[in-house]
Write a structure and sequence with these properties.
Blueprint lengths: L2 H7 L7 E2 L8 H23 L26 H18 L2 E6 L6 H9 L2 H5 L7 H10 L27 H9 L5 E8 L6 H6 L13 E8 L9 H4 L2 H11 L2 E6 L3 H29 L8 E6 L9 E2 L2 E2 L18 H12 L3 H4 L8 H4 L43 E3 L1 H14 L4 E5 L17 E2 L14 E2 L4 E3 L3 H13 L3 E7 L7 H14 L11 E6 L17 H6 L6 E4 L4 H13 L4 E5 L4 E3 L4 H10 L1 E3 L13 E6 L1 H17 L5 E6 L17 H8 L5 E5 L4 H7 L8 E4 L10 H7 L4 H11 L3 H4 L1 H21 L4 H4 L6
Parallel strand pairs: 2-3, 3-4, 4-6, 5-6, 10-13, 10-14, 11-12, 14-15, 15-17, 16-17, 20-21, 20-22, 22-23
Antiparallel strand pairs: 1-5, 7-8, 9-18, 19-21
Helix pairs in contact: 2-3, 2-4, 2-6, 2-11, 3-4, 3-11, 7-16, 15-19, 19-20, 21-25, 25-27
Length: about 800
């Protein structure tokens, strides 16, 4: 193929070129479809430009234009084109369908049709389908006190904002798991397609079970440009692009061009074909009861950037070029020629033929939209709390570990949780899934495989039957992409179902940004009366920093907690259960909750157990507590407070307490453990905050506090800086000191070990600063001995590993 022919094959211009042939629209249907699309395009321009004169009932004047022009035209007309055609197939096939908008800043292309179908005005009566309502609808866009240029929570029909690119497709797939009648149309922007999370999420098609799941119809929208650069997929050779998606396991259907009439016909024929193929695939699988990997259809829509804009502005190419990305004509208030150009452009859509005298879309165009909850702006799946069913939970007390005495037996903390999750799964086989990146067994949650297997629809080898735990109907979602898993989970819970995600602590950072965006979404949803609460996002952070001695420095990073603490206190919770029974209590609480990001930090290895179930429930309910059995200050003021948060810091803090009581029998020590980390903040800063009086009672007003913490030490200072005794608070935590260490050597290097804590108490209690010299020397020598033993033998001393509470 010569260069000219090659470029023609990837051009967004000309009559439609399509994989699927056909012209299913009658002349009248074609006319009405184009008119509906033009109405959408008119509304898009109104949102970008107008504050008055919404239907141009008088000549356009500078005072009708917004003082500050914000928004994005580029992908919006293409999205409205897609929406208009999806309306048609929803009506034709009576589809249950929602729409996910991936392109950045593409909200006008969604808001326009949501307004035309009536969904917007039903939720926001002041944005009625009248001249005044339309003016209010236009004015609020990208305006203080109004709405943003993404599909924010304020957008009816949206469950994906798209402020940060890359997650549309994984969110879309999450919505259709266990939703057998739902089709989610996911528009993927060609700029978005260059992100890592989006590229990986194309593999989600390999996890769709056609018997129990719905279907995603990906629509890759190639309009050619990002802000001011070409897009990679839009410039690939046509054959290479087709082969790319064939390799991903899709059936790509191209719709390419700019001519309105032929593009409408091609899109209509293509959507008919895709919907019929999806239904045929599902019907066959449901009839035979056989679930296998299916090559689902997808659409590659190539149309001009800023479709229907003027070809040129001020001598520069506009339509079909990056200049159409944002506000296409920027100086309309001050340049009469630009104002005239804008007016001519808006009038080219013939608004007087589209809207009646009151400003409402004319009846025959209104009839193109579905009715009721079949409208994509009113579908309850995109407001998932409306579809939510409560989890049927077993009694977590039935999974308790029996504790004869505190700190005498060791149990793998997460194994009983896996047994609990197994029974949660058994009771909720249509509304609950477990997610993890190839780590469910590693994280000791493998008991869930007694209830269900890992979803696997690709090829099997015979050896997979020997412990592979794979199943075509599995409900454990494993893929080595934290991004895709998090996207699936968010889509799953935002559409009303429940999930649990377990991952290694060091690599939960991969989804920092996703959790950040989800927290922002939840915070905004709380402000909207019509957004129904959704199940919480539950994250188990395990394989923690203090037990990553064998994997080394790269696996030692507890900083995810700092990221979560930055988010709104209305939606974030951090729990640090020290043993099995507190972990079970916390997990039960989190699974019952709504509209939160719950982060649970608990290691998977063998750890001492402290609290029986009754004590664990009380401790978790309080969130912070004094452990009487580990304290000896009853009836008096303590000389020092030793506090802990996290499993390994807790055992080291307890061992330090025992050392000090042995060396100084008259030393009064109060031991405090924190499960709910935000209890450390005042109630003015977090709804879980401990009152100042209770905090002062627990931590004293003037005694030294040595706080042994799981993560970076400054986080505790950040949470407690307003407390009365903060100047006497001394925090130990991870200080970026690590390598291939034994667990105890790693603790010594970061000064969270028992000897460092004991020395710190000696230094802070005035009467021990001199009298404690012999003990300090002894403890330092013990540290040296422990390090030498580790370097010689590769393990920690038995007396360290096998330590038990001696009192």
């Amino acid at each position: 193929m010569d260069t000219k022919a090659k470029l023609a094959s990837i051009s967004a211009y000309g009559p439609a070129r399509a994989t699927i042939a056909g012209s299913p629209l009658s002349p009248e249907e074609l006319h009405d479809m184009d008119a509906y699309w033009h109405a959408c395009c008119y509304l898009i321009l109104g949102m970008l430009y107008l504050r008055e004169n919404p239907l141009l009932r008088e000549p356009l004047k500078p005072e009708h234009i917004k003082l500050r022009l914000l928004g994005h035209w580029g992908s919006s007309p293409g999205q409205s084109f897609i929406w208009a055609h999806l309306n048609r197939v929803i009506k034709k096939y009576d589809l249950d369908m929602i729409y996910v908008s991936g392109p950045g800043h593409g909200a006008p292309g969604v808001l326009g049709p949501v307004y035309l179908e009536g969904s917007y005005s039903e939720i926001y009566p002041d944005k009625s389908e009248t001249l005044e309502g339309m003016k209010s609808f236009f004015r609020q866009f990208s305006f203080p006190g109004g709405i943003g240029s993404h599909c924010t929570p304020e957008t009816p029909g949206s469950l994906h904002e798209g402020g940060e690119l890359g997650y549309s497709l994984s969110h879309a797939y999450g919505t259709v798991f266990d939703n057998p009648d739902l089709i989610t149309a996911c528009v993927v922007g060609d700029g978005e397609s260059e992100t890592g999370p989006l590229a990986t999420s194309w593999h989600s098609n390999k996890f769709i079970n056609p018997i129990r799941d719905g279907a995603v119809l990906p629509i890759l929208h190639l309009n050619g440009y990002k802000i001011n650069n070409p897009c990679l997929l839009a410039r690939m050779d046509h054959e290479d692009l087709e082969h790319l998606f064939l390799g991903y396991g899709y059936k790509p259907c191209f719709v390419e061009g700019s001519d309105h009439d032929t593009m409408h016909q091609a899109m209509a024929a293509t959507l008919d074909s895709c919907v019929e193929e999806i239904r045929a695939t599902q019907q066959e699988a449901r009839k035979t009861g056989t679930a296998t990997f299916c090559r689902w259809p997808m659409i590659i829509l190539r149309s001009p950037k800023g479709w229907t804009a003027p070809a040129e502005v001020n001598g520069h190419k506009m339509e079909g070029f990056w200049r159409a990305h944002q506000v296409p004509i920027a100086n309309v208030r001050n340049d009469p020629n630009q104002l005239k150009l804008l007016e001519d452009w808006m009038r080219s859509y013939k608004p007087e033929e589209l809207f009646d005298s009151n400003g409402r879309l004319i009846p025959k165009l209104r009839d193109l939209s579905p009715k009721g909850i079949r409208r994509m702006g009113s579908n309850p799946h995109s407001n998932g709390g409306l579809c939510k069913e409560g989890l049927r939970l077993p009694d977590f007390r039935d999974f308790a570990v029996k504790i004869p005495e505190p700190a005498q037996i060791e149990v793998e903390n997460t194994h009983p949780l896996g047994v609990f999750l197994r029974d949660v799964m058994k009771r909720n086989m249509d509304t609950f899934r477990v997610f993890g990146p190839d780590e469910t067994t590693s994280n000791k949650l493998n008991a869930v495989y007694e209830a269900t297997k890992k979803t696997w629809l690709l090829n099997y080898f015979p050896e997979d039957m020997d412990g592979g735990e794979l199943g075509q109907d599995g409900r454990v979602m494993e893929m080595l992409s934290e991004h895709t898993l998090e996207g699936w989970l968010e889509g799953y819970i935002l559409s009303g179902r429940h999930g649990f995600f377990a991952t290694y602590e060091s690599f939960v950072h991969v989804i920092d940004s996703m959790v950040n965006q989800h927290a922002k979404w939840l915070e905004k949803c709380r402000e909207l009366w019509w957004r129904s609460p959704v199940p919480s996002l539950n994250l188990l952070i395990t394989s923690t920093v203090w037990r990553q001695d064998h994997n080394g420095f790269t696996h030692q990073d507890p900083g995810f907690l700092d990221i979560v603490a930055n988010k709104s206190p209305a939606v974030t919770r951090i729990y640090m259960p020290p043993d099995v029974n507190t972990l079970l209590s916390v997990a039960d609480h989190c699974l019952r909750s709504k509209n939160y990001v719950n982060v649970i930090v608990c290691d998977k290895q063998l750890h001492l157990q402290y609290l029986d179930m009754d004590a664990a429930i009380a401790h978790c309910t309080n969130g912070i507590g004094l452990w009487d059995w580990a304290s000896n200050d009853q009836g008096s003021e303590p000389d020092a407070v030793i506090a802990s948060a996290g499993d390994v810091p807790t055992v080291e803090a307890l061992a330090a307490t025992a050392l000090l009581r042995s060396e100084f029998p008259d030393l009064k020590i109060r031991f405090v453990n924190v499960v709910d980390l935000f209890r450390l903040q005042p109630p003015s800063e977090h709804p879980h905050g401990y009152s100042d009086r209770d905090f002062d009672t627990l931590f004293t007003m003037d005694k030294p506090i040595i706080f042994n913490f799981h993560a970076y030490p400054w986080m505790i200072h950040r949470l407690t800086y307003r407390r009365h005794n903060h100047e006497n608070l001394h925090v130990r935590g991870y200080k970026e000191q690590g390598n291939i260490n034994t667990p105890f050597e790693l603790a010594i290097r970061n000064e969270i070990d028992r000897f460092s804590i004991a020395i710190d108490v000696i230094d802070r209690v005035p009467r021990l600063q001199v009298a404690g010299a012999h003990a300090k020397t002894k403890f330092r020598n013990e540290q040296i001995s422990c390090e030498n033993y580790a370097y010689e033998n590769g393990i920690d001393k038995p007396e360290i590993v096998n330590w038990k509470w001696p009192y």
